[in-house]
Amino acid sequence: MPDLLEVKAIDAFYGDFQALFGVSLRVEAGQIIAVIGANGAGKSTLLKTIAGLMRPHQGEILFEGMPVTGTPAFDVVNRGIALVPEGRRLFASLTVEENLLIGGQSHRPGPWTVARIYDLFPMLAERRHLPAPALSGGQQQMAAIGRALMANPQLLLCDEISLGLAPIVVRDIYAQLPQIVAEGLSLIVVEQDIAQALRAASHVYCLQEGRVALNGPARELTREMISAAYFGV
Amino acid sequence: MPGIQPGMTKKRPGYSSMQWFNIVLQGVLIGGLYAMFAAGLSLIFGVMRLVNIAHGDLIVLAAYVSLMVTQAMGVDPLTSLLLVVPVMAVIGYTLQRGLLNRTLGDDLLPPLLVTFGLSIIIQNGLLELFTADSRRLQAGAIEVQAFELLQGVWIGVLPLLQFAIAVAVIAGLQILFYRTALGRAFRATSDDPSVAQLMGLDTRHVFAMAMALSLAVIAIAGVFLAVRTNFDPAIGPARLIFGFEAVIIGGLGSMWGTLAGGIILGVSQAIGAQIDPGWQLLAGHIVFLAILAVRPQGLFPKVSG
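^ inputs. structure came back:
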C-alpha cells in the first residue's frame, strides 16, 4: 500500500534564508506522526510547505501517489490536506459557527459536519454565535481544529496546538485525537511539548536547524537520543 | 426641482419650516446616490485594502455604457440596467483578475498608483470615443413625474426611486455580507488572506468577485447619475470625492453607515446651496472635514484597526 504522504528531500527558503535542507518524511494511512524540534528548527515551514502556502525550491511532495509540489494552498485542501495553523488564526470577524462553515467551503464529502464538530467539542456548541475572539485560548484551538476537520481531510496538519494553553486544556484536546483518527484520517502533529508528542504519535521526526536529525517509532526513541537530536549536542 | 425654484431667484429668502423640510428631503434623496457611489468603494477597501482611485471614472464609464445600450437598443436607461449591470460586473472581474490582483501586497502604494493610471486611461479613452460633449440619459416621462407629499412639498418619482434602490442596494450588500457563503468568504479573506486559502478559497477569485460586485453597484449609480445630470468624460474624480466623503463620514466597513454618510453629505450640500448656490459643494466638504476632525473614525465605524 502506497504512503498517504511522501515528502522527498525538500528545500525551502524565506528569501535568501534557507529554512529546510533536504527534509524527507512519510505518513501512512491512519498514522499519527509527531514532528518535534526547537524554535526555528523548521517545523512550521515544513507544514506550510506541505499545505501549499510555501513552494519548495527543491524536492517533491506526493499525496496519495500524486505530486502536489507547488500546488496552491486552496487546491491542496481540496485534495484532502488541511492545516491547523500555528496561533489558531481564526477569522476574527466571523462567529464560531461561521468559522466552521468556511472550513467546509471545499465541500469534500466525509464524516465531518458542524453537528459532528459540536459533538467532539461540546463547548463550541454553546458559543456557536459568539465572535471567534470571544473564546478562550483552548476553545479557539478547538474551533481551529474543527474548522480544519470541516474540510474532511485525509491528512490533518496540526501546528503547535498546545502553544499558550494550560496543560489541562492540552490534555483535553489531545484526548480527542484518537476519536479524530478513528474516522480514518492521518495526522502530523508539530509539538514543542515532547512528552505530549511521544504519547500521541506512533512515529517521531526530530528537526534541527532545518534538517531531520532523528526519526523513528515513538517507543524506540530514548530520552537521550531525542535530547541529542533536539539540541544538537 | 420645482420646490426650490423660489430660492434660486430670490436672494436671502426667509424660509418657512416647510421649505426647510423640503430642502432637507431633497438632500436625503440625493444622498442615496452618494451612498451608491460610496458602497462599492467601501466594499473594495474592506475586502482587499485597495483604494480604487478609478472608482469615479468607472461610474462615468457605466453611464456611457448605458448611453450606448439605450441608443443601440432603443430602451430607456432604467431598462438598460439589465445589461449594464452584468457588463460592468464582467469588466470588474476581468480588471481584478487581469490587473489589480497583481498589485496587491503588503504595500498600499502600487494599487493606488495603478488605479490612478487607470483613471487617466478611462477618462482619455472616453474622450477619444465620445468627445468632451456633455451627454444626458433621457428617462422619459418619469423624469418629471412628482407627487405632493405634504402641502408644498413635492417629491420627484425618479429621486424617490433612486433613493429606494440605494436603500435596497445597501440592504442587499448587508445581507450578502452577513448571510451568504460569498459574504463569509469576503470577510474571511479580509481578515486573513493566507488562512482563507487554507479553507480552499482562491483569494484571487474572491477579490475578483468583490470587484465584480463593486462595479455592479457602480453601474446602478452611474445610470442614475446620468439620468439626473449631464455627464462628460471628466466628471469622474468629483464623484470619487463624494464617494470617499460618504465612506469616511459613515465610518469604514459599515454599509448602513455609508448610507448615513451619503445622506449627511447630500443634506449638507442641499442646505449649502440654499445659503448660496456657490456653497453647495463647499458645504459638503466643510461638513466632511468637521466630522473628520471631531470623529476621525466616522459616525458608525464597524472595524477597529
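The two ends of chain A are 38 Å apart (CA to CA). Residues 137-149 of chain A form the longest helix (13 residues).
thumbs up if we can close this ticket
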